[in-house]
């Protein structure tokens, strides 16, 4: 599997356009990997993680196309991860040609929120009506935690995130070709049920992506931060959840407590993981 990070920031991007804090000012001056769009990722060229608001600009910047995406696994419906307008823009009714039928996989709560959002701009009514889903060239699938499902050639399992439970937030394990990836954002502390489910399902990962909203000097609240990611690296290796050579990456990086990329990358390296950046491509 090939993992491409389309965005690696938290909700307000990094630098935040309205912010003059030191981290934002230095990120603007440095440019390059210090400039972060809101978080989303692409596996190979056919599986999207989060229909996020910045996926178009990421594709423009990195010479990518989403024309071959056949499945999208959605973590939750918060606006920094889900832009409902993309469902309209990829449909034939909006002039898009050649896109395959896309499976959209999400919790029941996320699908309900998505239906509400699309209804503002889609006259026929709810996307959950099969006829309307067909018009949008989408097939909707409700994801139940801990129950594996097929998304094209991938075996995917959703895990409950510790993040706004009313939204049905999910984390995902993705398996294909004997390789395994865990994508873990947005979440605070992983529950013991999730840790035990990794073992019960016989999972071990070649790559792990974790929420890194808070920086090294902050106390995490509602999301993971640098200290928690460093602790999880140790635990995953100790419990055999990281395969030999397995790598851990930080994403969903907020400007308030995280320094620009060179400094954050150095801190992460000293604690056993890597700071992802927009456009990073990883062979899992």
Could you write a compact summary of the structure shown?
The protein has helices at residues 22-30, 55-62, 85-89, 108-119, 130-135, 192-200, 226-238, 261-270; strands spanning 2-7, 40-43, 47-49, 71-73, 102-106, 138-142, 149-151, 154-160, 170-176, 179-184, 205-211, 242-251, 274-275, 281-283. It is of the alpha/beta class.
Q: Any chance you could write out the topology, listing elements then pairs?
A:
Layout: E1 2-7, H1 22-30, E2 40-43, E3 47-49, H2 55-62, E4 71-73, H3 85-89, E5 102-106, H4 108-119, H5 130-135, E6 138-142, E7 149-151, E8 154-160, E9 170-176, E10 179-184, H6 192-200, E11 205-211, H7 226-238, E12 242-251, H8 261-270, E13 274-275, E14 281-283
Parallel strand pairs: 3-4, 4-5, 5-6, 10-11, 11-12, 12-13
Antiparallel strand pairs: 1-2, 1-14, 2-3, 7-8, 8-9, 9-10
Give start-end ranges of low-pLDDT stretches. none
Say how many strands there are: 14
Sheet-strand content, in percent, reads: 25-35%
Report how far the terminal alpha carbons are from each other.
5 Å
Task: Specify the helix fraction band.
Answer: 25-40%
**Which fold name is given in CATH as the topology?**
Metallo-beta-lactamase, Chain A
Strand order of the largest sheet: 6-5-4-3-2-1-14
Radius of gyration: 18 Å
Known CATH architecture: 4-Layer Sandwich
The first-level CATH class name = Alpha Beta
Q: What series of H and E elements makes up the topology?
A: EHEEHEHEHHEEEEEHEHEHEE
Morphology call = globular
Treating each run of at least 4 consecutive H or I residues as one helix, how many helices? Answer: 8
Oligomer: single chain
- Class by alpha and beta content: alpha/beta
Domain module count: 1
CATH homologous superfamily name? Ribonuclease Z/Hydroxyacylglutathione hydrolase-like
